[in-house]
Structures are given as C-alpha cells and as structure tokens.
Specification:
By secondary structure, the chain is of the alpha+beta class. Helix content is 39%, strand content 23%. A hairpin with a 2-residue loop joins strand 8 and strand 9.
Length: 517
C-alpha cells in the first residue's frame, strides 16, 4: 500500500517528523522482540493521545508502526506458544507485550473510525482506505480477545462494544462487503464482514475448554474458513448464533432468547461444518495436516484433531447439552497435576511409610462447588494453579475417596473478580497402577514388574471388551500388542484407539483378554 507520508502541515508532535520516526524504527533491537514491541506500543499510545493529526496522516503513521511490529509480534506469539512451562515472569512479559500491542493498535485504528463517524469530509478523502481501517480495527479486537482467552479471562465488554460499533459503521457506509487488501501478502485479502464473522465465530468457540495450543489451532481454523461463515438477519440452518451491534454483550446461541431487532445480526458456520468434517477425515487418513491449513508450526495431529472436533461440537446448530445435572455442594478436593505426579501420588498412598516431600509439595487444595455424575465444578485459590489450562490431566481425591481418581480440566473461567473456576471431567474414581510390556516379553506375571508404568481406568472391560488406559505421552505401547500386569493377573491388550492426548499423557483404549499361565 503506497502512502505519501506527512505531506502538508504537521501537528506539534515528535512523531509527525518522518525522519524522527525512521530513526526510532532503525533503533529497535533486532534480537529482543519483547522490547521492540513494547517500544512500538508506547509510540502508538503517544499518537493515540495526541491531537492535531489529520486523519490520513494519522492512518499513515499507524500503518507504518503496524507493519514495523509484524515480525516482532509473530516472534513473541510463537515463543509464548512453543514453550509449555515458561517461567512466570517470562510468560508475563510475553503476554503483556503481545496483548498491549493489540490493545493500543486497536485503539489507534478505533480512533480513526471515531473520527470517520464525525467527519464526513475526511471519510470522503480517505475513501479507498476506509474499509481497510475498519477491517484492521476488527482484527486487532479479535486478537485482543484471543490473548485474553489464553489466560482464561472473560472477554472485556469493551471489546464486544467496539466490535459492534465498528461493524455498524461499515454497514452504514456500505463498505462491509468490499474486497480489499487488509494487509500486504498472499493471504491479505478479505472484507470487513469476514473480519467481523471471524470475531464472532472465535467468540462462540468455547475456548475455555481448550488448552493454549488448541486455542491457537482453533484461531487458525477460524482464519482458514473465514470466507465461508454465514451472516443474515434471521436465524436459520447454519446460522444459529446472534450478536446485537448496539450492546456490549458477547454473541450467544439463538436458543438463549433471541429477539429480532434492527441491530441484531444472526451468524454461524454456514457450510463450514461439512468442510471441517471432511478436513478431520483427511487428517485421520493422512496422519498429517494438509498444507492448505496454515497452522504456523507443526502441531501433533492428535492435538489438531481434538481442537477441530471441539469446533464441530460448538459450531453446530444444536448447542452442546450438559450430560448430567449438577447439584451445589461444598467439599475439599486434593489435586495433583500431570501423569508423573499422579503416579507418585498413588505410590505414596500405597506406602504408609513414605516420606515423599516432593509429592506433598505438588498437591493443592481446591473447593468443589458443584457435583454431577460426570465431574466437578471447583474453585481454585488465587495463589494456586499457575499451571492451569484446558486438557490438563489431574489426580483428584475428595474427602470421601480413599483412592486417587483421574480427571481432565474441561472448562476454565475467570469471573469479574478474577476468581478462577474450573470444570473437571472425572475419568475414573480410582486409577489403578499397572505395568505394560511388549507381547511375549515375559512368561509369568512376576517378571513384568520392570515394565512401563500406566494407569488403568476401567475396573471391567466395557460392552466392546475394551479398557481405558492412561500412558505417558509418546509411549511406544500405544500402537502395539502388549501385555499388562495388574494385581497379579496378566492380560493381552490389542490396540484400540487414541481418545485424546495432553502435554504428558495419552488416553487410549485396548481390547483386553486375560492370559492364563
């Protein structure tokens, strides 16, 4: 996009001098993207609070800083996603740098939109860039939403209010469906309406039930299918959500009380579900992600499939129903997280003489606030659970359970007072330690004691003769015929299917047959 920067009169602001701006940009550290991004964010803040910039010059300067930050924000985002357990201060530095950049960039483009509302002559003069400004403002708001959800925080009502106001402006100016170059590059074309729908679909994707890597996959999937989402004034098949442009409220399913009005817009997956299911099937068959789905980095196919299946569930016309009724309760819950910590907790419980202080330090005490047949809703103390994210494996022990059970965090919500609440699906009330070995490696039960440790979740095989096991992530036992030793009995296990995987575990099924002799 070509600009003639800072022609004519200039406001009394140091960044109105192009030579000064170039000098500032040239001084950005090449090998410290957090500092570079913080510097650009500070300059955006200074411009946002300044008066006197003509709209075209303000936009030119914002665009220059936006393009300057592109590579740095990409590096910061990739570093945040690539390391599972960052030190807390590092995680804070990366998150703050990225979120504050998108916040100030969104404010910058948003100020341009506000000026366009009040200055019709300026809107005419900058007519070519008009939809670009609005589309970028919407994208910055979507990325703010993404970074809020990475910390499982509620999306600020400010974001929903600005999304509605910006899109209403685009409809009012009849620019919502113009195809434009939002950003330079091979995939930079789009429309304001598509950016609006990406924000909407990301907003109804139930990201609180995904871990950060799955959230990134979901965001990439939203971008990939962005041109196929549906928008209309009335709900219908493939268009079962709504958003009121005049309110500061998140989008919702039409089943939650939709009333048609002039500012309400209905939207949904449209034809995306069929394409998404076809993509899932292709990934299963190829055991890899096709190149046309740009995920930025190579994610494990099991993680990709779990995230895509999650989107199918939550983008469908029928909202996911709770499988069991919940009842209010107050009960103490002892928690450990991760496969190895759960194994250690079970071993410590079995050994009354154990002085495993490392295990004791790994336990946390939460409070159950509601209970259903399939799991708990729990409150996390403020100082606990820095490791919390969706999909994490938990060892759980209530006041009534003598054994350690196994569960998975399915939902995380931070309320307005920053209190974290989680939904935990219980896989088993007792996780039974077992040993696994390659088939034929032993001749008697006792010889298997040195095998690979796993956790049996099924006291008895199900109707299909299958059992469920938790094994460590990357275990070679997942896809082969093996033998299992449990409480003095030996079983042959034929591989079944992978149910899901996490950072350090895989939940798999096997067909089990007891071995005699």
């Amino acid at each position: 996009m070509a600009f003639t920067l800072f022609g004519g009169g200039k406001p009394d602001h140091p960044m109105a001098d192009l030579n000064h701006v170039r000098k500032l940009i040239s001084g950005l550290p090449a090998n410290d993207s957090v500092k570079a991004l913080n510097d650009v964010t500070a300059w955006l803040d200074s411009i946002n609070s300044a008066e006197g910039f003509r709209l075209d010059r303000r936009f030119e300067l914002i665009d220059l800083l936006d393009q300057t930050a592109r590579n740095h924000v990409r590096i910061v985002s990739e570093e945040y996603q690539s390391t599972q357990r960052l030190q807390k201060f590092k995680e804070n530095a990366l998150w703050t740098a990225a979120f504050e950049f998108w916040k100030l960039l969104g404010d910058a483009y948003g100020r341009c939109v506000e000026q366009l509302w009040s200055d019709a002559s300026a809107a005419r003069e900058i007519r070519t860039e008009l939809p670009v400004i609005v589309a970028r403002a919407l994208r910055a708001l979507t990325l703010q939403m993404k970074w809020m959800l990475l910390r499982y925080s509620p999306v600020d009502v400010r974001v929903w209010g600005e999304v509605g106001r910006h899109y209403f402006f685009a409809e009012n100016k009849e620019i919502a469906t113009e195809t434009i170059e939002i950003y330079p590059g091979a995939h930079g074309q789009g429309t304001v309406q598509q950016e609006f729908l990406k924000a909407m679909m990301f907003g109804v994707s139930a990201n609180h039930g995904l871990n950060p890597v799955q959230q990134e996959i979901a965001a990439r999937a939203v971008a990939h299918f962005g041109k196929m989402f549906a928008l209309q004034l009335q709900p219908g098949p493939g268009c079962s959500f709504y958003f009121d442009l005049s309110l500061r409220e998140p989008p919702a399913h039409v089943s939650q009380g939709f009333t048609p009005n002039p500012t309400a817009r209905c939207f949904g997956a449209g034809g995306v579900l069929a394409a998404l299911n076809a993509l899932i099937q292709e990934i299963r068959q190829l055991d890899r992600v096709p190149a046309e789905l740009d995920l930025g980095v190579n994610f494990d196919t099991d993680l990709v499939l779990s995230a895509l299946r999650h989107l199918v569930l939550h983008w469908s016309d029928e909202p996911p129903a709770r499988r069991w009724e919940r009842r209010r309760i107050a009960m103490r819950l002892t928690v450990v997280h991760g496969f190895q910590n759960l194994l250690r907790a079970i071993e410590t419980l079995a050994d009354d003489t154990s002085l495993d202080f490392e295990h004791a330090a790994a336990t946390e005490s939460w409070v159950i606030e509601d209970l259903g047949e399939g799991g708990f809703g729990a409150v996390i103390p403020p100082i606990m659970g820095d490791w919390i994210k969706g999909g994490i494996l938990l060892g759980v022990q209530t006041e009534d359970w003598r054994a350690w059970g196994a569960g998975i965090i399915r939902r995380i919500v931070r309320d307005e007072s920053r209190q974290r609440r989680v939904g935990i699906e219980i896989l088993a009330q007792e996780a039974i330690p077992v040993k696994l070995s390659p088939a034929g490696a032993v001749s008697q039960a006792g010889a298997m004691r040195a095998g690979e440790s796993a956790l049996l979740l099924s006291a008895m095989p199900d109707k299909q003769g299958e059992i469920s096991l938790l094994v460590r992530a990357g275990s070679s036992m997942r896809d082969r015929t093996i033998e299992m030793n449990v409480r003095g009995k030996r079983y042959q296990l034929l591989p079944g299917s992978l149910i899901e995987g996490g950072d350090d575990y895989a939940l798999v099924t096997f067909e089990a047959t007891e071995l005699i002799g």
